[in-house]
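Researcher: We plan to redesign the surface later, but first we want a full-length starting point. Tokens attached.
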């Protein structure tokens, strides 16, 4: 099946137009040559940006010399009102210490302990959609609801219906509406001295989210002190000591970290789930195979070990992450002059690594725009993936939630498709645009039905 394919991609665009197009429609608007090039240079009056698609360059930046290519200050400035100095934006020893405290909470054995909370959220999402079967549903909103529920239940042992969780979710939506695409800011031709005032709605929404998160963490410190805190991710991270120095996060640091877990953990997973469901809706044969696998593997009380047996569903999820990577690009700054592919890259240049381009690159993937989950079982597909699949980034800054997301995504997908059918609604296909993550410009509207029944007698039918 061919994924919604751009018509004709333009071959050359100016930098200014490129930025405009990136925000308008990242699928069709990207110049065709960027899906063939190993490297491209963008010049602006104040600095240069290099898009690096060559897997060897990506390895250099992310795995071999990450210290020479830190996160750019512009990214930190863009996200500071919400994220403070969280692990997502820091560099050097400050960042390394944060990862030493956080990483153990996401290690394999610990993940198994989060499974009951993930399952409860997934079943709740299934039930919500069952009530709407027979109608047309905007699936991105449902996916956001489900992914936020997973995060609140695994982090703080509270469902999304909890009063504070619901308020964080709403305030966060306001933040998203107010916040322009952050990574694009790193491209913008502004000199370093240019004042970077955040717009009032962004600051206001960020303040609200942080005040609510502060409340949750304060309550948790009190429960930890009283010895009656639940054994969830928040407790694990708040009581974990840095193995090198022995110290733990203080209250302010923990607010920064919870903010990034919520942002990185729910926006991304929601985007991936929504696009996965869209691709399956557009490909009924693949959808049937997911349903059959889910029926065979998941009983009424699925266990953690069952997720590993959802092999085809996992390949569908990987393929969706390839075609619609939730984080379409990552930006780093060259701390020293380097030479990339016979080109001198000056100190201070922006290095752009783009899962969006690399994962649809014509020289790295066979039929790069096709939705073909079976490629993941073929040797050449695996080789392409080894070189050119980086939805979670790579190297020491790889997403610490990758293992978590690769359980959550297939589980949600399998449970939803086992019990429900999804079909595209009439009309033009969704247009992917880059917000905080890759979203559809006007949402993704799918017709939802109950699998194995007629829809006539279902609850919620209009
Ligand atoms: C499908 C789901 C997800 C995708 C595609 C994804 C993708 C990414 C990517 C690409 C990065 C690197 C960004 C950069 O270097 O600029 C990242 C970082 C991060 N992610 Fe995820 N993520 C997902 C889910 C999660 C979850 C569930 C959590 C936590 C609960 C999480 C927490 C983080 C954190 C804390 C970082 C910052 C790591 C660092 O800079 O050291 N992510 N993620």
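Model: Full-length starting sequence:
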């Amino acid at each position: 099946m061919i994924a919604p394919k751009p018509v004709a991609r333009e071959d050359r665009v100016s930098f200014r137009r490129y930025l405009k197009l990136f925000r308008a429609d990242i699928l069709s608007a990207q110049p065709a040559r960027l899906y063939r090039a190993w490297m491209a240079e963008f010049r602006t009056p104040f600095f240069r940006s290099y898009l690096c698609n060559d897997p060897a360059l990506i390895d250099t930046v992310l795995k071999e010399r990450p210290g020479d290519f830190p996160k750019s200050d512009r990214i930190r400035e863009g996200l500071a009102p919400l994220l403070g100095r969280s692990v997502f934006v820091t560099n050097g020893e400050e960042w390394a210490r944060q990862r030493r405290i956080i990483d153990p909470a996401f290690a394999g054995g610990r993940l198994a302990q989060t499974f009951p909370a993930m399952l409860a959220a997934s079943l709740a999402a299934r039930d919500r959609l069952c009530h709407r079967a027979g109608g047309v549903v905007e699936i991105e909103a449902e996916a956001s609801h489900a992914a936020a529920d997973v995060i609140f239940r695994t982090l703080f042992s509270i469902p999304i219906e909890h009063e504070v969780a619901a308020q964080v979710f709403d305030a966060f939506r306001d933040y998203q509406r107010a916040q322009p695409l952050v990574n694009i800011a790193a491209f913008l031709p502004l000199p370093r001295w240019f004042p970077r005032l955040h717009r009032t709605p962004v600051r206001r929404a960020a303040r609200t989210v942080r005040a609510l998160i502060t409340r949750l963490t304060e309550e948790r410190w009190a429960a930890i002190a009283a010895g009656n805190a639940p054994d969830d991710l928040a407790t694990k991270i708040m009581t974990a000591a840095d193995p090198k120095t022995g110290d733990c996060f203080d209250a302010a640091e923990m607010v920064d970290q919870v903010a990034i877990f919520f942002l990185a953990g729910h926006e991304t997973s929601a985007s991936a789930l929504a696009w996965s469901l869209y691709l399956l809706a557009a490909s009924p044969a693949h959808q049937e195979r997911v349903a059959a696998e889910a029926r065979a593997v998941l009983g009424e009380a699925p266990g953690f070990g069952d997720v590993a047996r959802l092999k085809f569903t996992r390949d569908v999820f990987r393929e969706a992450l390839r075609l619609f990577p939730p984080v379409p690009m990552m930006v780093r700054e060259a701390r020293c002059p380097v030479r990339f592919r016979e080109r001198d890259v000056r100190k201070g240049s922006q290095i752009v690594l783009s899962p969006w381009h690399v994962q649809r690159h014509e020289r790295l993937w066979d039929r790069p725009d096709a939705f073909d989950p079976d490629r993941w079982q073929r040797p050449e597909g695996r080789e392409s993936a080894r070189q050119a699949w980086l939805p979670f980034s790579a190297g020491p800054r790889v997403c610490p939630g990758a293992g978590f997301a690769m359980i959550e995504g297939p589980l949600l997908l399998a449970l939803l498709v086992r019990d429900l059918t999804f079909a595209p609604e009439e009309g033009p296909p969704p247009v992917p645009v880059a917000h905080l993550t890759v979203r559809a410009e006007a949402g993704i509207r799918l017709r939802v039905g109950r699998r194995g029944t007629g829809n006539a007698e279902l609850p919620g039918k209009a």
